[in-house]
Amino acid sequence: MKKLFAVVTFLTFFFACFIKIKRDTHYFKLKKVAFRSKKLSPDSKFTILQISDLHNHVFGADNERLINTVKEVNADLIVLTGDLIDKRTMTFDYVFQLLERLTAINQHVFFVPGNHEWENGRTAEFFNALGERYVTILNNQHTRITKGNDTINLVGVDDHATEHDNLAEAFRDLNSGYYTILLSHSPGIIKQDHPIPADLILSGHTHGGQVRFPLIGALIAPGQGFFPAYDKGTFQLSPGQYLYIDSGLGTTRLPMRFLNQSQLSLMTITGKGGSETKKNSPLFS
Asked: End-to-end alpha-carbon separation of the chain, Å?
């Protein structure tokens, strides 16, 4: 009886882990995060949908589940923080179709490259195709986004992990009086000798460790080694400055997630003491 009990317990545990891995890997959640700043007027509100580390993964037929979520949240802008493809991706059809549908929903779609775009071998072809699909690539550049009476800076730095980043160029002639968001695929960008003049840094790259364990968290993350300090979530770097790491949608190397469900993130940024504004306020860049 003891042996039978042990076998049943093991099989139950194994089956439960299998179901959890399948759910975490193939069914995503929407993570909601809020930030506030005195640089925005009291009644202002910007919503930003962050999609990161897709690695060519497909959610439902033609990414229908992902597209439906994008429509539902109706964010002011969409930011893609790298690794839409994997370095082993041979065909870009799924990603291109997804991008075409994203820009049909929202004309304000911005992208910064990740290490896998640079390591794929068809980098130039991929970047050109993004432009043809009306995705704005912020490779060491910045732009302004205005909604109502408020303006934010949106800065994009090229991939830090593959040494394509140039912060000086990205922030050149930027008005730091506006609320400033930096898009950087790798959170390693924070390891600079000089302060980064951004209020919020949005990153990916870590996959949240991809596989996590209770009480331990992430075992390993690229660029940080074992037990990474910056794995996923919000980190305060200094008064008024935050780093947010999205754990992403896809996988690489090991095709599974565990205790770390695939996700995309919706950032809401408001002025201090503010209330919500109308969702369809005009937005332009």
From this structure: 70
Contact of 167 with 182, CB cutoff 8 Å: no
Q: For domain 2-284, is the CATH number 3.40.1160.10?
A: no
249 with 52: CB under 8 angstroms? Answer: yes
**C-alpha pair distances (Å), 155 with each of 50, 64, 179, 188:** 14, 30, 11, 16
Residue whose entry in the numeric block shows the structure tokens 């506030």: 36
State CA 32 to chain mean position distance.
Answer: 12
Supply the pTM of this predicted model. 0.93
Instruction: Please write the tens of the pLDDT for every residue from 173-215.
Output: 999 999 999 999 999 999 988 899 999 999 999 999 999 999 9
The Cα–Cα gap between 215 and 192 comes to 30
Return d(Cα 81, Cα 90) in angstroms, integer: 21
